Amino acid sequence: MRRLLPFQVLALVLCLAASALALAAEAAPAIGAETALRLQPGEQALPGQSAWSPGQRQESGFRISVGADPETPGGFRLEITPDHKIGPAPGQKPAQPNGLRLCLGLTSAARLDLYKTRAVEFRIKASRPVAGILALTSSNTQNRNARDRAFGSFGIGTEWKPLRLPYGTLAPMPGWDEEAKRLGLSPGDHVLRPDSIEDFCLGVEAGRLPQGDAAPLVIRIDGLRFVR
Known about the structure:
Number of helices: 2
Helix content: 10-25%
């Protein structure tokens, strides 16, 4: 067996060390990068978890309150009320920029990684019949500024309704390319990437809600799971 000279041994050691550092740098997340929360198949979203957004917010002319449902352990209760102080004049619909189908409802407080799942399952009902929507915004894993938004629509009645919405059945959101530019984002390639969900919303379509003195709309969501 040929013996290596000392300088050859040193060169080999340095080469191996450089390769190891390069592999480590490639595997490690970039400094300051936001790590997505990976949800396992069958994992249920619960009101007490930090990934979901409880409390109140104002959006598109409505006040939205999200919390635990006292009547359904483990479920969410949403109350959506027209707010004349921030909304359009009575009788007018909230703005729908570029024809977007805006979602008001349960949102995620974290960036989500749904790579291991293929669909969203849940039960839902409302205090009165209304149009429901699931809206997902994903980013390109190589460029988080490039984003796509997809949606699925369904009816919500006053009785519990079980639904399963596969990601593959969601359609590109009309008008999203123009809205992305307005927000300072780059329109994507119209491909939903479950492993890089920037925004999640399950609720009702803003454009289908009355703006008058209507009573608050109450939405209940139970058994929200991400499944194969």
